[in-house]
Amino acid sequence: MTGHTPIPKTSRLDxxxxxxxxxxxxxxxxxxxxxxxxxxxxxxxxxxxxxLSASQLFTWRRLxxxxxxxxxxxx
Length: 75
Known about the structure:
There is one protein chain. Helix content is 41%, strand content 0%. The mean pLDDT is 84. With 75 residues, it is mainly alpha-helical.
């Protein structure tokens, strides 16, 4: 007896394409950033609620602090 349970192999992996990337307006970005500051530990909850990753929201927060949160066309 080896003392461990074998892990079954994955026989199929489905990749789901969601189409094009989501574009956020500058107003939406500012609203989401402001919402993330409205209470303790709300970054991941706010990100999940708005359909983006916490790392993206942290990036927007950093850019907002630096005064560099602008439309994608302006960068």
